[in-house]
């Protein structure tokens, strides 16, 4: 890499980071998910705005190929891995064993029905207008089904924290359902990504070594590989949990916070690399490592994970979301009516099925409606689903734009609805008072971090 290319890489990263933090903080100030602001920061630097005003500058800073494109792309990939890792860690802190029947019924209804609708939708629409360069309709079908069924844990938990209902029974049910749904849908997404990766011509990976060729064999292999990977990782985590913990050492010791961060990063990267070879999505590997870390009793508030999460939230993850905005082209790759129709179908399918599940679980009509809207927020998981499927060539640029906008719009709707629910006293029985008139419109009193997607 020449000095000119190095300068361009560093300048591109600096601009992405500055734009992400500036717009993210602006959104947080107005009690909006900062992830949306971070995407908007990248949108301004991409083909939608800068590319229209100064196309030469935009192409010089953010070329599609070459050494200059490699640097930001690597940070983007690391940001996605760390985002999924921290999301996995948080699973333990939000999962509740109470209300088990309600959680099970709502999760099954709220996931199975929208997923089935997504599978049927592919039979109705013309996939030629949606499929990406990989030209894999089966993988596209799985992605669309996941996009309709997915729920965001980070965004909805951040919203409920900001409006003061995070400790309510309602919040525990919402987050418990979201945990179950995200684990299952991450497995399905990993299968879709593995099918596309296995179809590559580079002859790399276990699937190629075993001679897996046909579409049915590829789907079967990657389904088994994803499940077996999860089980093996769980057994390893249980075995490591029984080992004696090393004594805390000095600053350079393996037991020190810095040493612990290095060990976790090494494990994360090694597992992600293993996933690439096995044909399992690396982001699923990162998610599982974080999930099992949480199951082992570690939380993001522990010193080592807190340091890792803090640096990831300050650098890698904002650059990741800004790069998502950078990929959006609202001028050439935005189908307004298809996007509106998709959002309506996705919202109705998810909200209606969650509402029916809540009613079957003997929840009141009002609470069932609140649960339905809260579980409709797609946030970060919806954005990750869109980006990884776009990068893998499963979806084209137009559908990528639609999926990103669906994640943003549904998150905004959930935040607005739950604030109205608090205002009408929906959670008064659990000790959450309705806001006073003079408090309306006040900014959030708690900092909102970059992982609130």
TrEMBL record:
The chain crosses the membrane at residues 69-91, 103-125, 137-161, 173-199, 219-240, 277-296, 308-328, 334-357, 394-418. It is a multi-pass membrane protein. Residues 20-422 form the Cation/H+ exchanger transmembrane domain. It is found in: Membrane. GO terms for molecular function: antiporter activity. One of its GO terms (cellular component) is membrane. Keywords: Ion transport, Membrane, Transmembrane, Transmembrane helix, Transport. One of its GO terms (biological process) is proton transmembrane transport. This is Cation/H+ exchanger transmembrane domain-containing protein. It comes from Streptomyces caeruleatus.
